[in-house]
Every structure is written in C-alpha cells, then in structure tokens.
Amino acid sequence: MNTATIASRYADALFGWATENNQVALIGDELQAVLTLVQEPGLNLLPYLADPAIPHDKKLSLVFEAFASVQSPLRNTLALLVEHQRMDSLPNVVTHYQQCLDTSQRRLRGTLTTASPVSSAAVDAVTQAIKKRLGADEVFLDTTVDPSVLGGASLQVGDFRLDGSFASQLQTLRVG
C-alpha cells in the first residue's frame, strides 16, 4: 500500500471524528501546527519519530509530552502513526485532511500560471469565474510566473485544467 493511501485512511478517520464532534477547523489547525513543529529544521522531530531504530516507548513519550495540548483524537492518531511506523506519512495525512476540509466547505485550490505577473484584479476575475463555473463557495489561487508558457495562461484547479497558454497552442499546431 502506498503512502498516500495509508495517509488518507488516517486523515479520513480523524476527519470523521472531527465532523461528528464539530471540531473540523480546530483539528485542521492543530494538525497543521503539529506538522510545522515536527518539520522545524532545528528540531528534526519527524526523522526522529519515523526512525525504526528508536524504541516506540521513547517516541510515544515524546508525542504525548510535546502534543499534550492538542485534542486527544489527534494525539492518539499521532501515537498510531508512531506505533505502526507510519510517521513519515504525516505530511500526506495533513494534505488529505485539508482536502477533506476543502471539499466539505466547497472550497477549491488551484494554480494560475502565466508568462508574466498578473494583477490582483485579473486573479479576482479568474477566481469569480471558477466559482461560477465549478460551483465553489471559495477559491484560493496560487499564481506562478513561468516564461515558458510564452503568453496566455494555464489554470489547474483539482482535476479541472484549462490551458490557454501560447506554448500549448503552438504544441497543438505542431502535432495537429
């Protein structure tokens, strides 16, 4: 079983509990804070917690001490990740949980790629069009500049892709 599949099971279970207990946003925030802490460059907690050479009891002790302030289902999920030697899946757990949260709140995230920087008004116009076309309540777009698109824009939102870049159009002319 791959890491993403494993992570999705942990995230789904945690999201299910959070939904039943009206704690979805709180657990999401705490989960993100935990990931930020364990990935802190100076601390090196994630490699430590994922290291199979370190005894489980030491890692579990660290989890329960370091994360005493988080909700117990999250702390227990972290303990399960440690016990099953899946702590390296934590970043994927966070990503999948965020996807569940976005889906439940009808939020979409995407990337708008252009050859040169675009104005915030243009990004707002694209955002509004995506909301209308895909029926989302909220849309969060990251913008990237990639000179290789030559002009126009490329938009990726979930499975939806719209490529109006000049590079894509030229490629179509070459092939077609």
Brief write-up:
By secondary structure, the chain is an alpha+beta fold. The protein is built from 8 helices and 4 strands. The chain folds into 2 domains: 3-103, N-terminal domain of the delta subunit of the F1F0-ATP synthase (Peroxidase, domain 1, Orthogonal Bundle), CATH 1.10.520; 106-175, Glutaredoxin.
Could you explain the architecture of this structure?
With 176 residues, the protein is α+β, with helices and mostly antiparallel strands. It folds into two domains: 3-103, N-terminal domain of the delta subunit of the F1F0-ATP synthase (Peroxidase, domain 1), CATH 1.10.520; 106-175, Glutaredoxin, CATH 3.40.30. The chain has eight helices and four strands. It has a four-stranded mixed β-sheet with strand order 2-1-3-4. The longest helix is centred in the N-terminal third of the chain and has 18 residues, at 3-20. The protein is elongated. The chain starts with a helix and ends with a helix.
Give the number of DSSP strands: 4
SSE order, one letter for each helix or strand: HHHHHHEHEEEH
CATH-derived topology of the largest domain: Peroxidase, domain 1
Please summarize the sheet with the most strands.
4 strands, mixed
Number of helices: 8
Beta fraction of the residues? 5-15%
User: What's the CATH first level of the largest domain?
Assistant: Mainly Alpha
